[in-house]
């Protein structure tokens, strides 16, 4: 019984708040009483509640406008093409070690391990398996 009293009290408070909102907005005849299927009187329909609680636009508000750019292209201006740097055309045997390109053509005949170079490929794994940082420092003179 206490639960029912609490629910009825909450319904009355809710209806009072909604009526106050409606009155504050100046809407007339929003409250309608209609019997519900269970026999109880319902004070507001969903549509009425939505209309009464939804914000109303201000009569002085102006709709948002999209601003257009005031920059007008000059029809006489011709765009200057930016020259694209061409990649270095290097002949020889180019290998990559850790993302850096080296021209190892002079090493092919003097390399102590023989001519094992796979030109045009990444040889990082093979290089580090057989060499250390000291040898990589010597490779700087072959860097492209």
Structural category is alpha+beta
Report the principal-axis shape: elongated
**How many distinct domains?**
2
How much helicity do the residues have? 25-40%
Query: Spans with pLDDT under 50 lasting ≥5 residues?
Result: 27-34, 38-42
Mean pLDDT level: 73
- Give the biggest beta sheet: 3 strands, mixed
Task: Supply Rg.
Answer: 42 Å
* Alpha plus pi helix count: 4
Lateral strand order in the biggest sheet: 4-3-5
The percent range for strand residues is 5-15%
Cα(first) to Cα(last) distance is 91 Å
Question: What sequence of helices (H) and strands (E) makes up the elements?
Answer: HEEHEEEHH
Structure description:
This protein is of the alpha+beta class. The protein folds into two domains: 2-53; 94-142, no CATH class. 31% of the residues lie in helices and 10% in strands. The chain is built from four helices and five strands, in the order αββαβββαα. A three-stranded mixed sheet has the order 4-3-5. The chain has a two-stranded antiparallel sheet with strand order 1-2. A hairpin with a 5-residue loop joins strand 1 (34-35) and strand 2 (41-42). The termini are far apart. 4% of the residues are buried.
């Amino acid at each position: 019984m206490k639960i029912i009293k609490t629910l009825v009290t909450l319904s009355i408070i809710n209806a009072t708040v909604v009526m106050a909102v409606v009155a504050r907005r100046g809407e007339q005849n929003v409250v309608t009483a209609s019997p519900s299927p269970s026999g109880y009187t319902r004070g507001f329909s969903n549509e009425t509640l939505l209309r009464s609680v939804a914000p109303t636009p201000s009569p002085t508000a102006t709709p948002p406008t999209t601003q257009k750019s005031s920059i007008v292209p000059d029809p006489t201006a011709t765009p200057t093409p930016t020259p694209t740097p061409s990649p270095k055309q290097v002949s020889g045997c180019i290998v990559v070690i850790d993302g850096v390109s080296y021209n190892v053509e002079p090493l092919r005949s003097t390399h102590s391990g023989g001519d094992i170079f796979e030109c045009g490929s990444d040889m990082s794994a093979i290089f580090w398996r057989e060499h250390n940082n000291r040898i990589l420092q010597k490779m700087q003179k072959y860097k492209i």
